[in-house]
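Purpose: get a first structural picture of the assembly so the mutagenesis plan has something to point at.
Setup: three entries, given in the order below. No constraints added.
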Amino acid sequence: MQTLQKTELVVKNLSCSRDDRLLFDKLNFSLQIGQVLLLEGSNGSGKTTLLRILCGFRQADAGEILWRGDDMAASSYYADMAYVGHADGTKKELTVLENLKFALALNAPGHYSIDQALVKVQLAGFDDNSVQTLSAGQKRRLSLARLLVTHNILWILDEPFTSLDRQGIELIESLIADHVQQGGMVILTSHHDLNLSHLALQRIHLDTCQ
Amino acid sequence: MSVIPAPVGRFFHKMASPPHFYALAERFIPWLTAILLLLLAAGLYGGLYLAPSDYQQGESYRIIYIHVPAAWMSLFIYVLMAVMAAIALVWRMKLAEVMLIASAPIGAGFTFIALLTGSLWGKPMWGAWWVWDARLTFELILLFQYLGVMSLYGAIEDKRSAAKAVSILALVGVVNVPIIHYSVEWWSTLHQGPTVTKMDKPSIHISMLVPLLLMAVAFKFYYLIAVLQNAKLELLKREATSQWVKTLLEKSA
Amino acid sequence: MSIIAAFFAIIRRDLLLAFRRRAEMANPLFFFVLVVTLFPLAVGAQPHLLQAMAPGVIWVSALLAALLSLDGMFRSDFEDGSLEQMLLSHHPLSVLVLGKVIAHWLVTGLPLLLAAPLLAMFLGLPQQAMGTLWLTLILATPLLSLIGAIGVALTVGLRRGGMILSLLVLPLYVPVLIFASSAVDRAAGGLPVAAQLNILSAMLLAAVVLVPLPTSVALKMSVN
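Result (structure tokens, whole complex):
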């Protein structure tokens, strides 16, 4: 019989330096289902570094990251999370459909089928278009479609609103709201003003975190 | 766990801390230098003056007192680097990383000396500055492996990542070392070439062996001194922003 | 998808990508032939000399062609963020890496076999060595992709990783070169080559097992 651990991300005493600069020291926060964490800070304040540590690409100098009570690496963290960074994570020579199918090879399937996801990100009918032919905004929406078709609880988004117009930004905000309401959690960084105040929003400002 | 007595465990734990290591290295180096000079004097006196001349090669064989210990060191240091690499990867110990990269140029240096002296030996023996015998070819490839480690470390900006990269490279390289050794040995037998390996004779006279071993130990002391010096420097670079380095630099200013 | 399905999915994906860039696919092959052509031009076209050198020349050229094609193994995925996505998959990276290396070999190594008869003809390699030439190419080209993968993984994050890659990988290639070229050489002389082929097979099997892990660790370091 397995004890059900609370689905929660806990970060304890995380410290990181980069290029001899202390980015953050003894950072503590936790994230529950239904919550959104907004990381704020000027350029170079360590937002992206923190996200990359949360993705496991980089190791912090000190501290722990716990998912469902267990250390990040030992738990189901990687099965439960998804990341959209500065790079899209898509192959430009492949079509929209091929990219999403490959994403399903790497991760378990989620709430939406490929067709439903494409409708939701307003890329319906673009199945057989190679990614090369898409605009920057469309490529960004494709990355988010990837989040919809795969199973994930935690979304980690680094500047998801870049290259998007007003309509695109509203779309992403609604996707985030839906995800969070359906039992997910989101960590994101953004320069833009966000209309997410109706959600349970935590804010961490990194410049003040020394 | 309790096999290691507590004071010894504490000593190693303390040693792994950069400022303590730095201070300890500074204290030891003068003593090590004194021992080195003694051993070198004894080894060179024994090898160059006391040992009899070889009945085949006359006096020119005496270069083995540098060539052979240098070749031994080139191999010894690479294996040591691999051990440090394993420690660095498994226990994420900064000092192991520092000692690893500090050893690389020294190992490369010894490999180069082995090649140079091997070449110098070959000239009077075979009339050629270079022969493709098993040992020299092996040393040449080993030199490239050392240069690879040094280049890779220099090329990666983030030194934590660089240390991880060279640890992986050193471990892969150490697996390659016996493979190279045996394949080059075998390859050199295909085309019966000349050999610069006097040491493969079944017995070596004691008057020649003793200076050789003295030189081997002397070279180990040299390595120890050089690696501690290099490690001190690398530690200062990697910990440049830490308090102990700032205090140290202020004190010596 | 299960891990086996993911393994095949990544091979299929890479083959599809290579096919979409098929203008580039023939490059290693052309390079292979071109380098071999340089030797008669450089040393003179005496048949006996060329015949004696043939096994070595063919194998050095194959090695250089393999070396040149290595960079493409992870570069594209590194640059567009696909590599990060692979790291985030709950499938172990080692398996995905092995898939990528196999796909790389299928695209860059296997075609080299096509050039073998042509090159044998250019250099006057005796007919009795042809079978061994095929065998060494089949055994050793995947070995070159595997061993090379470690070097690529260590240098993919560097801007000018190409030269360092050669420095890292060539010492690791030396044993493969020794045994492969010697096998062809002996076959040309009518001598048995079982020992060399067995050693190459053993090295290949060992590489399949041992290479994915350090390659994965190196990729994680590079993505830093």
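Residues 1 and 68 of chain A are 16 Å apart (CA to CA).
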